[in-house]
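Below is a filled-in request sheet from our internal design queue. Each sheet records the structural input a requester submitted and the sequence that came back. We keep these sheets so that new team members can see what a complete request looks like end to end.

REQUESTER: design group, bay 2
PRIORITY: normal
MODE: inverse folding
CHAIN LENGTH: 314
BACKBONE (tokenized):
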């Protein structure tokens, strides 16, 4: 088959990895004509203007880089718009311009976990499996018909970073297998919208664990605590908990889903001042939770034992 001309829409590091897989695979019958990503953003304490990872890869391969407002003329001459974690709804007037439409690699088993955080939520909620969906896009968020899906188990040790890597590889393989179907087959499966659930953007507040809860977990106690992000999800979808997790598992699942950002943190009082203590690394060993490293607000990352010797809070 002839090589398909595509415009690629994506932003974060795992989307950049996907783009580079396309560019390195000479057997893949596609040609990337242009890349669309989010604008450069200030990063870090010094607020240095930083390009998104997808832009860095695109420039490495000397591809034109645009935002959606300037890509219209390219879309008139391409076969497919391919989207993987772009981070914004694409207007209908752009969706309609690609010859064979827009296709989305979504890292969940749609219609479950629509929205911006489909990799984090299965970890936070303790799911045993997840997957990737290849779908034909319409103007609504993660709403279009399903071309193909692939499931994968979630391993007990996997964090969000691990799943980003795994699901990107699965998504790429799925896309590669389905390329002929994107053009010649239109017998796609509409989603069952009555089963749809939705995620939201992660925030720093999602990682807050009350000090008393963290203390109880370290002491091996079991409290009926549920993170706000989980409670909001079940309330939004009028769902009942079918699996109850121990406090240790609840905290560790939250850690896995929020790692590395926004991460877990708690509030501690030091010299009469309330400060933020970030929990960098934890593990579960012999049914006990161990904090490995922490970072106190305004300080460098240290071993938890060193921190506790200095402040004696736990």
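RETURNED SEQUENCE:
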């Amino acid at each position: 088959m002839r090589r398909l001309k595509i415009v690629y829409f994506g932003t974060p590091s795992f989307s950049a990895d996907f783009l580079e897989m396309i560019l390195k695979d000479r057997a893949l019958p596609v040609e990337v004509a242009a890349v669309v990503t989010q604008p450069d953003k200030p990063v870090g304490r010094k607020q240095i203007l930083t390009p998104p990872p997808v832009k860095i890869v695109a420039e490495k391969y000397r591809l034109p880089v645009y935002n959606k407002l300037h890509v219209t003329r390219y879309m008139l001459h391409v076969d497919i718009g391919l989207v993987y974690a772009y981070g914004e709804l694409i207007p209908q007037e752009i969706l309609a311009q690609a010859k064979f439409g827009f296709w989305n690699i979504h890292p969940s088993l749609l219609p479950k976990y629509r929205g911006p955080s489909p990799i984090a939520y299965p970890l936070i909620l303790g799911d045993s499996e997840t997957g990737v969906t290849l779908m034909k896009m319409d103007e609504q968020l993660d709403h279009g018909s399903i071309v193909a899906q692939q499931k994968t188990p979630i391993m007990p040790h996997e964090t969000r970073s691990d799943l980003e890597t795994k699901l990107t590889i699965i998504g790429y393989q799925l896309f590669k297998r389905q390329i002929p179907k994107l053009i010649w087959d239109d017998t796609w499966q509409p989603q069952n919208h009555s089963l749809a659930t939705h995620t939201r953007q992660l925030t720093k507040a999602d990682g807050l664990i009350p000090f008393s809860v963290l203390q109880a977990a370290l002491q091996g106690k079991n409290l009926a605590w549920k993170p706000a992000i989980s409670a909001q999800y079940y309330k939004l979808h009028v769902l009942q908990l079918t699996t109850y997790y121990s406090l240790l598992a609840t905290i560790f699942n939250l850690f896995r889903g929020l790692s590395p950002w926004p991460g877990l943190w708690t509030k501690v009082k030091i010299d009469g001042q309330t400060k933020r203590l970030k929990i960098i690394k934890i593990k579960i060993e012999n049914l006990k939770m161990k904090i490995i490293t922490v970072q106190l607000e305004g300080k460098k990352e240290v071993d938890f034992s060193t921190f506790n010797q200095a402040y004696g809070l736990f």
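SHEET NOTES:
- The radius of gyration is 22 Å.
- The CA atoms of residues 60 and 263 lie 31 Å apart.
FILED BY: M.R.
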